[in-house]
Design a protein that fits this description.
alpha/beta, Nucleotidyltransferase, domain 5, 6-stranded mixed β-sheet, globular
């Protein structure tokens, strides 16, 4: 059994961001308890409460070493894998030309692009998505249906379940938040601003260093540790 924890940034249609980032962090259920314990120990090593919530918005100069240690922990832990989808040009979407009835249809397609390459018929999965709003239940049910149908998994034997959870309930989901925050910071070019956070810049630079990925371009689809897909809308003529 493999657990996949998903989070999203700038996912609303009219949130004044031209970039949406989706992220998925996977872990073999066998190692889940060990990973939780390791992350809580890292927190305590830095003088934080073991239940301190890891969040991109909390990255600061005072906690930079803690967050850098988390990045290094991810890359050194073989049972953890990450896939991110960065959808650019969100404000220029042409739904009618490309057979999307509306923004929600496109949103599901992006989640499909995130999760389909991350799931294999040779394993079983439980997927957990961070709760964002009161309408999430319908979205989760639709996403489960789309993913299962594509894999001919009509009895839901591959993707057993998709459910919503609060981020404070899972350190792995919180770790996913850290990575998508870094990707959003990079692709929205916030890191280029003169007054942008030096701590957040350091997180981005460490991910680039340890992944060997520039973050500008997609990795190989088969990249197993840090997998990245940069989506751009096709132009209509």
């Amino acid at each position: 059994m493999i657990n996949i924890y998903c989070d999203e940034s700038c996912h609303l249609e009219k949130d004044k961001s031209d970039v949406m980032v989706l992220g998925a962090m996977s872990v073999d259920f066998t190692y889940l308890k060990e990973i939780y314990e390791d992350i809580r120990q890292i927190k305590m090593n830095h003088g934080l409460d073991s239940w301190f919530e890891i969040k991109w918005t909390k990255v600061s100069n005072g906690k930079i070493n803690f967050y850098l240690d988390l990045i290094e922990y991810f890359f050194k832990t073989s049972s953890l894998s990450f896939r991110g989808v960065v959808a650019t040009g969100k404000g220029q979407l042409d739904h009618s030309t490309f057979n999307n009835s509306n923004y929600d249809t496109w949103y599901y397609k992006m989640y499909y692009l995130l999760l389909d390459p991350f799931t294999s018929p040779s394993h079983t999965y439980r997927i957990f998505i961070d709760i964002k709003d009161s309408c999430g239940g319908k979205k989760v049910n639709k996403l489960h249906e789309v993913l299962c149908n594509n894999k001919y998994d009509f009895n839901q034997e591959i993707i057993e379940d998709i459910k919503q959870v609060h981020s404070h309930e899972s350190e792995v989901l919180q770790l996913c938040d850290l990575f998508i925050g870094a990707l959003s910071f990079f692709h929205r070019e916030l890191y280029l601003r003169p007054n942008s956070s030096e701590a957040k810049k350091a997180i981005v630079e460490r991910i680039i260093e340890m992944s060997g990925c520039s973050l500008k371009y997609s990795t190989s689809r088969n990249e197993s540790k840090f997998n990245l897909f940069i989506w751009q809308p096709r132009r209509s003529f």
